[in-house]
């Protein structure tokens, strides 16, 4: 198949998954065309059957904010025409599914590519649910030829928030390359991150308020009272200054590293001992899955799609949002008990390999694509059971 993919190309789970999906599909013999405003951050080096098309945005005095969604629609239409795309896969409803629908309409009666939309999270729970975007988000979802969500939680929220029949949403979870994300990677940075042999506790995110970054620090402070450990904070965002200030207030500065954005998180996770994700909301929890594939147990909040990823009591522990005392206590107990840690580490790795490996998930996407292209898939349809989304 000839497949176009549009996504947010910068750091973030949806862009990472979209890019990895494209690369995996290309390795399976499909022609993949990425159409975005910047090269996806995980699209590195030459890959056979992979093409990148930059959406051109020329400044124009009339527009304070250039209309990217329209420029993207034009680029999608041009690539679909020139490359003969069978399907466009839009990751994130806004603006990508909307732009893809416009591009398809530009075929003006001729058959254009089919449209698959994958819902990743805040396009449903935050951005798309805002009154300014709700109607266009719902419209774009219902104009898709196939609709997927990364978790059962997100599927149900889509039905609840937008009145889209849950039976017409295919749940296809996020996935990872379990050969890339594994323990024992070389080079190992353990000696640099924990020169005194301390346990390594890690957090990776975009440091937005929803990630509850201060809770990461408070949880680590509780762990540090019981176990010699260092906290490695990977990423950047608006909550970083608050976290750094709290680290100073608690006297933890010698044991906390703020690394900023880092593309090769697999190298860091490979030598980590515990992963913290106390988020207020997670539609899936890709960072948790990446940690688990590296044999890193996860301490997280029991929210959103995380219970579908982390087996509470086996591959990690889940607690109510904000319960940093319980999170810290569980983390300290796990790090202090080597046999228990090994058991949790093995369970985390097994969970990732058995349920979320690329070898398992990508063929599901291929099958779904074929059903949509052949017209045998279930199109998104409205649900009128509770009058939602009206």
Structure description:
By secondary structure, the chain is of the alpha/beta class. The protein folds into two domains: about 1-175 and about 360-375, Rossmann fold (3-Layer(aba) Sandwich); about 190-355, Rossmann fold, CATH 3.40.50. The protein has helices at about 15-25, 70-85, 95-105, 120-125, 135-145, 150-160, 190-195, 215-225, 240-250, 265-270, 285-295, 305-310, 325-335, 340-355, 360-375, and strands spanning about 1-5, 30-35, 50-55, 85-90, 115-120, 145-150, 170, 200-205, 230-235, 255-260, 275, 300, 315-320. It has a seven-stranded parallel beta sheet, sandwiched between helices. Strands 10-9-8-11-12-13 form a six-stranded parallel beta sheet, sandwiched between helices. Helix 3 (about 95-105) links the parallel strand 4 (about 85-90) and strand 5 (about 115-120). The relative contact order is 0.12. Residues about 385-390 have low confidence and may be disordered.
Briefly characterize the structure.
This protein is α/β, with parallel strands linked by helices and 390 residues long. The protein is 42% helix and 16% strand.
Can you count the helices? 15
Rg from alpha-carbon coordinates:
22 Å
Low-confidence stretches: 386-390
CATH second-level architecture of the largest domain: 3-Layer(aba) Sandwich
The total domain count is 2
Main beta-sheet annotation: 7 strands, parallel
CATH topology of the largest domain: Rossmann fold
Write the H/E string, N to C. EHEEHEHEHHEHEHEHEHEHEHEHEHHH
Structural class: alpha/beta
Assigned CATH superfamily of the largest domain: Glycogen Phosphorylase B
Give the averaged pLDDT, no decimals: 91
DSSP strand (E) fraction?
Answer: 15-25%
> What's the level 1 CATH class of the largest domain?
Alpha Beta
- Helix fraction, binned, reads 40-55%
Q: What general form does the structure show?
A: elongated
Strand line-up across the major sheet: 3-2-1-4-5-6-7
Number of beta strands: 13
Q: How far is the N terminus from the C terminus?
A: 36 Å
């Amino acid at each position: 198949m000839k497949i176009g993919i549009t996504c947010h190309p910068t750091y973030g789970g949806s862009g990472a998954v979209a890019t990895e999906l494209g690369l995996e599909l290309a390795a399976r013999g499909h022609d993949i065309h990425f159409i975005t405003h910047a090269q996806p951050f995980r699209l590195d080096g030459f890959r056979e059957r992979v093409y990148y098309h930059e959406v051109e945005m020329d400044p124009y005095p009339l527009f304070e904010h250039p209309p990217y969604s329209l420029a993207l629609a034009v680029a999608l239409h041009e690539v679909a025409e020139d490359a003969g795309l069978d399907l466009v896969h839009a990751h994130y409803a806004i603006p990508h599914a909307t732009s893809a629908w416009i591009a398809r309409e530009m075929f003006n009666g001729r058959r254009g590519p089919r449209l698959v939309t994958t819902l990743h999270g805040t396009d449903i729970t935050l951005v798309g649910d805002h009154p300014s975007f709700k109607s266009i988000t719902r419209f774009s979802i219902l104009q898709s030829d196939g609709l997927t969500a990364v978790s059962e939680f997100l599927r149900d929220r889509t039905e609840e928030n937008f009145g889209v029949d849950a039976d017409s949403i295919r749940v296809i979870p996020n996935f990872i390359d379990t050969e890339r994300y594994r323990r024992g990677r070389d080079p190992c940075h353990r000696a640099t991150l924990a020169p005194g042999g301390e346990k390594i506790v890690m957090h990776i995110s975009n440091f937005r308020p929803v990630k509850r970054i201060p809770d990461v620090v408070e949880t680590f402070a509780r762990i540090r009272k019981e176990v010699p450990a260092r906290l490695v904070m990977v990423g950047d965002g608006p909550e970083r200054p608050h976290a750094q200030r709290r680290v100073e207030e608690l006297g933890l500065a010698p044991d906390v590293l703020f690394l900023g954005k880092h593309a090769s998180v697999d190298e860091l996770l490979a030598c980590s001992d515990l992963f913290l994700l106390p988020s207020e909301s997670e539609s899936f929890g890709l960072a948790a899955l990446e940690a688990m594939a590296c044999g890193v147990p996860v301490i997280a909040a029991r929210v959103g799609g995380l219970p579908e990823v982390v087996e509470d009591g086996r591959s990690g522990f889940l607690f109510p949002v904000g319960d940093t005392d319980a999170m810290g206590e569980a983390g300290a107990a796990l790090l202090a008990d080597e046999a228990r840690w090994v058991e949790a580490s093995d369970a985390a790795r097994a969970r990732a390999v058995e349920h979320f490996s690329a070898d398992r998930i990508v063929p599901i996407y291929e099958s779904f694509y074929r059903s949509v292209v052949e017209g045998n898939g279930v199109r998104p349809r409205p649900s009128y059971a509770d009058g939602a989304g009206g």
